[in-house]
């Protein structure tokens, strides 16, 4: 794990091979990354107390934690969290399904690619927040709107990366599969898709990130429940502690999503490493 | 043309290439004439080697036989040998590739079982057959590894097992050992000679190595530089089984010199045209 080089002492001095000292352990990168977080939080807490800052501008971390706890216990923050998660992942999974399907179709048919190309080129770089007003006119502000905006965020990166991954597939593998008797469908399922998985995953990372941004932004504009709505309302009434509390929940959500993606990546890519 | 063996199995099929030409069109410059008026026959139960300068159309010819490329001229026929020769269906074929072309995300055993899997063979049976095929190429114990964990020579043995497990009537080998070092190559050539001799399949072997051709083939087709034609068809009746010891046979040097004499001119010609093209 550590990059400290070999820790073992020469065989002539076995008695000296005692565990690394506390200072040495604190210097390890893993420990350091957490120590840094603790230092910043403590400094923040002390700064607010010493400088006697107005909690409307900057509340103390300890107060934020209390606010967070209260919001979960009595304030219905769980409901908001669940609503936001359903919107994000509902839209994301729809995008995953249709995005991979369209990507495969485009990558395996020049006609489909020709038909879809310009639409994707036009819609992909368009900041999706700009679609919020139009979507509200069409869909209102309820569930369908939220799912659509989330879906739109994840869809394009997934389509584009699926097309990219499949078109980069080693043609030798396709020939080998054909030679062994695989049908077109079997080649897609057993050769093209598995070889495109790293690229599709890169699309998923990008897409899920955009979905999260869009759902929270949409909730801030029109939501009645959801983390975005909660954040906006707290800001309106200058409940700065609650603002920070919601930000903590959002940041944690980001960490959890990233870690899950890393774990899935490692599992799916185990053939790439030893 | 060597006569068909008297004791040939009833289903034996000759692959007949008749006046085949193939031109690759190109959008920019002039089209590439890869093959021009190629005629040859691949006899059942025999190993035929194709040897020729780089770019002369050997792989193209193999792809035509496999049915992956359609010739622009001429015909590919499958002739069933019998009391009366009749047109037959293409025989069952499997290819061993120069670049191995193993599926990197599949374990070794799942690579070997791929062809059986797409054919719908039940899991237990296909794994058992793949295991046997791996044992035949001395790779027992590597079933659960991934291609990346194996050396080049081992990977190509997986490639051979993956083709042989399909029990093909015709084995197509496109420079199977071209990517391997000289020593590994020697050992695998001997092993392949044994495998092909014992299974009795028809094989077509594309190679750049004269030794390999003499060691493995019954007939050696020498091709000209591009556009590829058959310059000579050489019958190799050195006794079986052949091994590295065969290279000390006086007949070996005679064959070697003859093939080298033919190839030398063509390779020089190929180099001249390559230079002219550039
Ligand atoms: N798909 C293609 N499109 C255009 N030209 C091609 C194509 N495939 C092969 N060629 C050309 O046709 C000629 C014959 O190619 P082929 O791969 O059959 O040669 P080869 O004898 O197998 O060569 P090598 O010994 O280098 O493998 C070459 O000049 C090659 O550049
Ligand atoms: Mg070739």
Explain how this protein is built.
Chain B: Residues 15-250 form the ABC transporter domain. Chain B: InterPro entries: AAA+_ATPase, ABC_transporter-like_ATP-bd, ABC_transporter-like_CS, ABC_transporter_ATP-bind, P-loop_NTPase. Chain B: This is ABC transporter domain-containing protein. The complex is a heterodimer of chains A (274) and B (278). Chain A has 274 residues and is an all-alpha fold. In chain A, 76% of the residues lie in helices and 0% in strands. Chain A has two domains: 27-58; 61-273, MetI-like fold, CATH 1.10.3720. Chain A has helices at residues 22-26, 29-51, 61-73, 77-108, 110-123, 132-139, 143-167, 171-179, 184-222, 227-236, 240-268. Chain B is an alpha/beta fold and 278 residues long. Chain B has two domains: 13-92 and 171-271, Rossmann fold; 103-167, no CATH class. Chain B has eight helices and ten strands. Chain B starts with 12 loop residues before the first strand and ends with a helix. Classes of the chains: A mainly alpha (274), B alpha/beta (278). Chain A binds chain B through residues 170, 172-173, 175-183, 186, 190-191, 194-195, 197, 271-272, 274, and chain B through 66, 68, 93-95, 97, 99, 101-106, 114-115, 117-119, 146, 148-149, 162, 166. Adenosine-5'-triphosphate is lined by residues 24, 32, 34, 54-60, 226 of chain B. Adenosine-5'-triphosphate binds next to strand 2 and helix 1 of chain B.
């Amino acid at each position: 794990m550590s990059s400290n080089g070999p820790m073992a002492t020469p065989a002539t001095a076995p008695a000296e091979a005692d565990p690394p000292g506390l200072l040495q352990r604190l210097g390890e990168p893993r420990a350091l990354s957490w120590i840094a977080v603790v230092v910043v939080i403590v400094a923040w807490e002390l700064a607010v107390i010493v400088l006697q800052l107005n909690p409307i501008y900057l509340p103390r971390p300890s107060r934020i934690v209390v606010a967070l706890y209260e919001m979960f216990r009595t304030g219905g923050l769980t409901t908001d969290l669940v609503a936001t998660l359903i919107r994000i992942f509902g839209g994301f999974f729809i995008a995953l399904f249709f995005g991979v399907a369209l990507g495969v179709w485009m990558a395996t048919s020049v006609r489909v690619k020709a038909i879809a190309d310009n639409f994707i080129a036009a819609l992909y770089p368009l900041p999706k927040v700009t679609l919020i007003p139009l979507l509200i006119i069409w869909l209102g502000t309820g569930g369908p709107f939220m799912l659509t905006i989330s879906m739109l965020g994840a869809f394009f990166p997934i389509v584009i990366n699926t097309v990219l991954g499949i078109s980069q597939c080693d043609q030798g593998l396709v020939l080998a599969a054909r030679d062994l008797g695989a049908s077109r469908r079997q080649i897609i399922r057993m050769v093209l898709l598995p070889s495109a998985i790293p690229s599709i995953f890169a699309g998923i990372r990008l897409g899920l990130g955009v979905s999260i941004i869009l759902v929270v932004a949409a909730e801030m504009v029109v939501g009645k429940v959801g983390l975005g709505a909660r954040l906006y309302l707290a800001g309106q009434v200058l409940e700065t502690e609650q603002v920070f509390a919601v930000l903590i929940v959002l940041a944690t959500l980001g960490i959890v999503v990233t870690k899950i993606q890393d774990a899935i990546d490692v599992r799916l890519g185990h053939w790439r490493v030893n | 043309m060597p006569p068909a063996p008297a004791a040939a199995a009833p289903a034996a099929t000759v692959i007949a290439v008749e006046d085949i030409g193939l031109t690759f069109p190109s959008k920019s410059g002039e089209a590439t004439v890869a093959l021009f008026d190629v005629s040859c026959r691949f006899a059942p139960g025999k190993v035929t080697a194709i040897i020729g300068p780089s770019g002369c159309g050997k792989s193209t010819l193999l792809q035509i036989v496999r049915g992956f490329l359609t010739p622009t001229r001429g015909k590919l026929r499958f002739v069933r040998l019998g009391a009366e020769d009749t047109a037959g269906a293409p025989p069952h074929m499997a290819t061993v590739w120069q670049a191995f072309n193993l599926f990197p995300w599949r374990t070794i055993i799942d690579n070997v079982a791929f062809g059986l899997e797409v054919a719908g063979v039940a899991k237990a049976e296909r794994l058992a057959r793949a295991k046997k095929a791996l044992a035949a190429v001395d790779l027992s114990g590597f079933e659960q590894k991934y291609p990346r964990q194996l050396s080049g020579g081992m990977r190509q043995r997986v490639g051979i097992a993956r083709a042989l497990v399909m029990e093909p009537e015709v084995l197509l080998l496109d420079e199977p050992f071209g990517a391997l070092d000289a020593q590994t190559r020697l050992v695998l050539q001997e092993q392949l000679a044994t495998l092909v001799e014992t299974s009795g399949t028809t094989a077509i072997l594309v190679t750049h190595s004269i030794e390999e051709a003499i060691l493995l083939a019954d007939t050696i087709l020498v091709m000209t530089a591009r556009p590829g034609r058959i310059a000579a068809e050489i019958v190799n009746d050195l006794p079986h089984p052949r091994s590295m010891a065969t290279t000390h046979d006086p007949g070996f040097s005679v064959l070697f010199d003859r093939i080298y004499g033919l190839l030398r001119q063509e390779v020089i010609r190929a180099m001249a045209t390559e230079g002219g093209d550039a």
